[in-house]
Specification:
The chain is α/β, with parallel strands linked by helices. It folds into 2 domains: 71 residues; 239 residues, Purple Acid Phosphatase, chain A, domain 2. It is built from 7 helices and 16 strands. The strands form 4 sheets. It has a 6-stranded mixed beta sheet with strand order 11-12-13-14-16-15, with helices on one face. A hairpin with a 2-residue loop joins strand 5 and strand 6. Helix 1 packs parallel to helix 3.
Length: 326
């Protein structure tokens, strides 16, 4: 996905395998009304480093230079990814340079990529917010060289503690699909942004904990059923399942985390227990803190059969806070 000048007529992605020098070109695409193009390049070999350049009207684009990425491994392999959440609007912090230096396969962004707190059904406002993120040099360099796997939280979806009643719900969902690179979503149209994908032997499961949230449910009926099915089946077919859950799981009192929906949390935990899931790891965000739980405090099943490890990703550059936890 790329954004180009409004007078561009023909855009092509040029991707070069940095091992054997083979070059692949996308089909030429005409930019849409918002100067955004989606470029699909096929035939890339797995587990290879690649350089990517953008060709506009027959000339390689020089202003932004080239980017890079590695294709995912196909089958058992070791790989590294970075995870984080909560960056102030317009952040250009050194944390993005530090993540890039880790040379990760991808960046798992768990929400609050900005703090615009939009609450109007105005797609241009959401486009402007994403553009503000992409215009920051440190973030731009990271995204140019590391693929992102991103799910929103409250401040980048809507206002603080937002849910399905947010005024910008439709616009947020639409612009996410338009501007954010993502694996295939489970649902098309005006719907939640949950999805799952496989890298090597690892299944990554990303849930949308905001746009279907109501007083009765964190995820909504359809997403909840999908999640339970995905977690239980993936655990039997993959070596590891990683659930990217953007809000705290552990705790008894928070009004903006899983503690507010204890029955729904118990239903998920009971399904994991019945299926004998023992290869699940959760990564969460939202609270501005670093935390690790070995499973001692994550078991909310009826019979208390055992929890799962939980890693709580630190805020990228926001002040510290606490939410959830034993």
């Amino acid at each position: 996905m790329a954004e180009v000048d409004d007078d561009a007529e023909r855009v092509v992605a040029v991707v070069t395998d940095e091992v054997d020098g083979v070059t692949h070109r996308s089909v030429a695409v005409i930019p849409d009304g918002d100067e955004i193009v989606r470029l699909r390049v096929e035939g890339l070999r797995p587990d290879r480093p690649h350089r990517v350049e953008i060709e506009v009207d027959g000339v390689l684009e020089q202003q932004r230079g080239s980017g890079s990425f590695a294709t995912a491994p196909d089958g058992p392999a070791s790989f590294r990814f970075v995870a984080g959440a909560c960056a102030r609007t317009g952040s250009n912090g050194a944390v993005f340079d530090a993540m890039l230096e880790e040379d990760p396969l991808f960046y798992l962004m768990l929400g609050d990529i900005h703090y615009r707190n939009l609450d109007d059904d105005d797609e241009d406002l959401y486009r402007s917010a994403y553009r503000q993120v992409l215009q920051q040099p440190a973030q731009a360099e990271l995204y140019r060289n590391v693929p992102i796997s991103y799910v929103w939280d409250d401040h980048d979806y809507g206002p603080n503690d937002s849910d399905a009643g947010a005024g910008g719900r439709r616009a947020a969902r639409s612009v996410f699909r338009e501007m954010v690179p993502h694996h295939p979503l489970e649902l098309d149209g005006d719907a939640a942004i949950h999805r799952a994908y496989t890298i090597g032997r690892v299944r990554f499961v990303l849930t949308d904990t905001r746009s279907e949230r109501t007083d009765e449910s964190m995820l909504g009926v359809d997403q909840l059923e999908w999640l339970i099915d995905e977690l239980t089946h993936a655990s039997a077919t993959h070596g590891l399942v990683v659930w990217a859950n953007s809000v705290p799981w552990v705790g008894e009192t928070s009004s903006d985390a899983w503690a507010r929906w204890p029955e729904e949390r118990r239903r998920i935990a009971d399904a994991l227990a019945v299926a004998g899931v023992d290869n699940l790891v959760m990564i969460s965000g939202d609270a501005h803190m670093v935390a690790i739980d070995d499973g001692t405090n994550t078991d909310y099943s009826t019979d208390q059969v055992g929890g799962f490890p939980l890693l709580h990703a630190a805020a990228l550059d926001r002040p510290g806070s606490e939410k959830g936890g034993p």
